[in-house]
Write a structure and sequence with these properties.
Number of strands: 0
Oligomer: single chain
Order of helices and strands: HHHH
Shape: rod-shaped
Strand content: under 5%
Number of helices: 4
Number of domains: 2
Radius of gyration: 29 Å
Length: about 100
């Protein structure tokens, strides 16, 4: 084969390979973005439900201190200790009045 023809084929191959690779990367980015749009809200909802668990438990059990439990959960729930204490508080027995 002619050396110029080989050189030409290599150049054409590179010219075609670069856009193809960029297109593949773009498609991968779009797929990753779309998956993120679906997964991120689901993860945020799960995290919010876990974070608000002491408040949910207090309201479901009709705890007489449910407003205070909710306030303590909002203020101190971001710490593991505060979240655990509010969960224990929400689970303690209380009479409804």
């Amino acid at each position: 084969m002619n050396p110029e023809a080989v050189k030409y084929r290599k150049e054409v191959g590179l010219i075609l390979a670069v856009p193809t690779a960029l297109f593949a990367l773009a498609i991968a980015g779009v797929i990753q973005y779309a998956v993120g749009l679906i997964v991120a809200p689901i993860l945020m909802a799960i995290i919010a439900a876990i974070y608000g668990l002491p408040t949910i438990v207090a309201y479901r059990r009709q705890h007489r201190e449910k407003a205070a439990i909710m306030l303590a959960n909002i203020l101190f729930g971001w710490t593991f200790v505060g979240w655990g204490l509010t969960l224990v508080w929400a689970c303690t027995a209380s009479e409804t009045q």
